[in-house]
């Protein structure tokens, strides 16, 4: 049976001034899979993610989400597509002046016409899915970093999205809490039949959750494969990144002049 493509990037190019950040990315993501986009700092991961959610438009090429070319949609059409996706931000992006329950309920209040009693029930259900039922009245400042991440996950799924995007979901967390977040991503994907797209450079997380992996380097897709295929890759750049070795074809700028020269490119 042929797999359904829910996200398709075709020749995506993005420049900021003279700098080419995305340099012809082609990528297909299938319904129901957990797809990880990995790569070093500055490789274009976050910029590409912003294209996938419709926050940026490519200079050339196109991104199709759920069969819709995002660059051709009117604002109301784009809003309709965005209601079918959820976003979990690296910093959790919670509003400190709002309770946990109000943070989770925010998308429902903005996009759905529901009675408060219904909203409250939905919020409780989503918080229960991430192990935080009963935390509705607490403030974000009363939560640990891992708990804030879980509130962010609850908000990302509150509209029952078809696709959830995760930006560095385990950043800044200790190994145990990172494992909890990884397990939650997998559990939510299976229980809710969600397609998950995860941007990260956390190698343990990558190999814990991914069905397939794409490595980006200098704005291009270097390789795509299953975790086993990536582990066995013969590409030296992929092997260096996976192993975390400072020695290899991926160079890091140690001299000020080299660094400044790269910034000018």
Principal-axes geometry comes out as globular
Q: Give the H and E element order.
A: EEEHEEHEHHHEHEHEEHHH
Radius of gyration: 19 Å
The fraction of residues in strands falls at 15-25%
In the CATH hierarchy, the third-tier topology of the largest domain is known as Rossmann fold
Strand order of the largest sheet: 6-7-8-3-9-10
Helix and strand composition category: alpha/beta
Fourth-tier CATH superfamily name of the largest domain:
P-loop containing nucleotide triphosphate hydrolases
Helix content class: 25-40%
Contiguous uncertain segments of 5+ residues: 261-265
What does the main sheet amount to?
6 strands, mixed
Describe, in plain words, how this protein is organized in 3D.
The protein has 265 residues and is α/β, with parallel strands linked by helices. It folds into two domains: 1-84 and 163-181 and 194-265, Rossmann fold, CATH 3.40.50; 91-160, no CATH class. It is 38% helix and 24% strand. The chain has ten helices and ten strands. The protein has helices at residues 45-52, 75-82, 100-111, 116-129, 145-156, 175-191, 203-209, 227-231, 236-243, 256-264, and strands spanning 5-16, 19-30, 34-38, 60-65, 68-69, 85-88, 163-167, 195-199, 212-217, 220-225. A six-stranded mixed sheet has the order 6-7-8-3-9-10, with helices on both faces. Strand 9 and strand 10 form a beta hairpin. Helix 5 runs parallel beside helix 6. The longest helix is centred in the C-terminal third of the chain and has 17 residues, at 175-191. It is globular, with a radius of gyration of 19 Å. The chain starts with a strand and ends with a helix. The model is unreliable at 261-265 (pLDDT under 50).
